[in-house]
Write a structure and sequence with these properties.
Largest sheet: 15 strands, mixed
Number of strands: 39
Oligomer: single chain
Helix content: under 10%
Length: 570
């Protein structure tokens, strides 16, 4: 890769007062689409905000955390990362950026390095600096080139005491042109690191899983991914902060060595607001005997527009013909947001509908035949700033619901020859007017299943033999056979008969049985209650029997068995 000219050092308080006057590169526009959400960007320039030779304040312990303040800095992990103004008022731990420089003494483990230095910063031999055409120079006198040393490099701790080093710097996004978008790091980190932006953890480089997640403690056992540790100092890598949280990143820079990603996004950052920002980096060794350490990174962002959109409230209409899904339509809401995107957006739907950012805009109706539909949204400020959304209309559905059951005792005392029937209603949405039965299990029961029926009408299923057990019936829409549903029909349990005023009535269970109750056979009246329901009232009810014909007053009755213990039978 072509080397960049060194950028001037502006000091830690105001690193790059006008990054637009630094290195600018041509970049291509990019966009991607995702189901129900989209992000797009258009840009023409790239601004380098933090250069390879950026000045950093550092603090590097020699193996034990410095006793500063006396008794230790209990809130170090939450205050050393703070933005510059908050850091100045809240941080009270070991000094960052000491002037004059503090130099740690390896034999004194609670001593530490502190000072200000241009990057790259580290100690011992780093492989990248021996690579032909390396983008920037090495450091120190231990890399085989005594002439390229830089003042302020880190002291090498005693072996078995090499844990972590901490770095802070600031940069400025110029005011006037709006935010910069799609921030990215190029980096050389050995062995692993956590990166904080304005006090928040945004990325982890080569860090394995920790408990708790993203644990960044000086005294903790190193959690660097050992499998990747040997590949961290050989080549520059690219980390894209605009990716979603959890995304893998940190692969190779285009045109350089092919590398697997070794970083992950912790918090997505799609734009950087104008003004001052703070970077804090915790670099960690993969073991306490690690031979070397380095920190060097470059932060850039693009000058341009970024557009994102999400969809919701997808509604399908039957247009007054509920049993003719072919003429249905659908509509949906879009909420678009933009950085440097003007005040409104448009779409490529007929009539170019659009609206203001941040508020729902309803698009449609669209013919159902266009589902799934992909639309392109465009920012009013820049025709090249676009994004896409893809929406799928709700599909058709059918459901089958039993209304009642009846059991025929066949005039015998033998339950094995009993039959049962069920009254079923099949309901529908966005389908044709009727359904077909396509399968009955077990097959011997198929003769009892009606071959077809109309939606919304009560249809008798059966008779089925009780001895065949539960009957599973598959139904399909007559117009769209791929739309199906299943219903399972089981016979009510015969509890017995009772003569009331000379009228013999059969008492049957409800169907299906409550989940706390099971039977020991399809035709057996024996019912056992399990403890699956916990400490709740359990009821076992028969079907309601109309006894009006037994007397002069209308009267109905049902048998109820109730239990409150966790297990019982009767």
């Amino acid at each position: 890769m072509k080397s960049e000219a060194p950028a001037p050092n502006y000091g830690i308080a105001d690193q790059n007062p006008n990054p637009r006057q630094m290195i600018m590169k041509n970049v291509s526009s990019m966009a991607f689409a995702a189901l129900l959400v989209g992000t797009g960007v258009a840009s023409a320039q790239q601004s380098v905000l933090v250069h390879w030779n950026q000045s950093w304040k550092f603090m590097h312990p020699m193996g034990a955390f410095p006793d500063v303040p006396v008794g230790g800095d209990a809130d170090f992990e939450t205050t050393w990362i703070l933005p510059e103004a908050a850091f100045a008022s809240q941080y009270n731990g070991p000094v960052f950026g000491s002037a004059p420089r503090l130099t740690g003494v390896p034999a004194t483990t609670n001593s530490y390095d502190s000072g200000v230095s241009q990057a790259p910063i580290g100690y011992e031999v780093i492989n990248y600096f021996a690579v032909a055409g390396a983008e920037f120079s090495g450091f120190g006198d231990d890399d085989g080139n005594p002439g390229n040393g830089l003042a302020g490099q880190l002291t090498t701790p005693t072996s078995a005491q090499r844990r972590a080093a901490y770095f802070r710097t600031t940069f400025t996004v110029p005011v006037g042109d709006g935010p910069l978008v799609l921030p990215k790091f190029r980096y050389l980190i050995d062995d692993g690191a956590y990166i904080y932006l304005d006090g928040e953890l945004v990325a982890a480089i080569n860090m394995a899983a920790t408990t708790p997640v993203n644990r960044d403690q000086y005294s903790a056992t190193p959690q660097v991914n050992a499998a990747n540790a040997t590949a961290t100092e050989d080549a520059l890598r690219l980390l894209d902060l605009s990716l979603t949280a959890g995304a893998a990143t940190g692969g190779e820079i285009p045109g350089e060595a092919v590398l697997n990603p070794n970083a992950r996004i912790v918090k997505q950052v799609v734009s950087l607001a104008p003004g001052a920002h703070t970077l804090a980096v915790s670099v960690r060794s993969n073991s306490q005997t690690s031979s070397d350490m380095v920190m060097a990174l470059e932060l850039s962002a693009e000058v341009g527009c970024i557009l994102t959109a999400s969809t919701g409230n997808v509604v399908r209409s039957t247009t007054g013909t509920p049993f003719n899904p072919a003429d249905d339509t659908f509509s949906f809401d879009v909420i678009a947001t933009a950085v440097n995107g003007g005040t409104t957006w448009t779409s490529n739907a007929p009539g170019s509908p659009g609206g203001a950012y941040g508020v729902p805009v309803t698009l449609g109706p669209f013919p159902i035949a266009q589902s799934p539909l992909t639309l392109t949204l465009t920012a009013s400020s820049d025709p090249a700033c676009t994004t896409q959304v893809t929406v799928t209309a709700p599909g058709g559905a059918i459901t089958a619901v039993p209304q009642s059951f009846a059991r025929d005792l066949r005039g015998t005392v033998d339950p094995a020859d009993d039959l049962f029937t069920a009254q079923v209603v099949v309901n529908s949405q966005f389908v044709s007017a009727s359904w077909n039965a396509t399968d009955t299990t077990p097959l011997v029961a198929a003769s009892g299943t009606p071959p077809t029926g109309s939606y919304g009408a009560i249809v008798a299923f059966g008779p089925y033999r009780v001895s065949d057990g539960a009957i599973t019936v598959t139904l399909a829409d007559a117009g769209t056979p791929a739309i199906t549903t299943q219903i399972v029909l089981s016979a009510p349990i015969f509890l017995g008969s009772k003569a009331i005023n000379g009228v013999l009535s059969d008492l049957l269970s409800a169907t299906p049985l409550p989940p706390q109750w099971v039977t020991d056979g399809a035709v057996s009246p024996t019912v056992t209650m399990s403890n699956a329901g916990g400490d709740i009232w359990r009821e076992f009810r028969s079907q309601v029997v109309d006894l009006s014909s037994a007397g002069t007053v209308a009267f109905t009755a049902g048998l109820v068995a109730r239990e409150t213990s966790t297990t019982s039978n009767f």
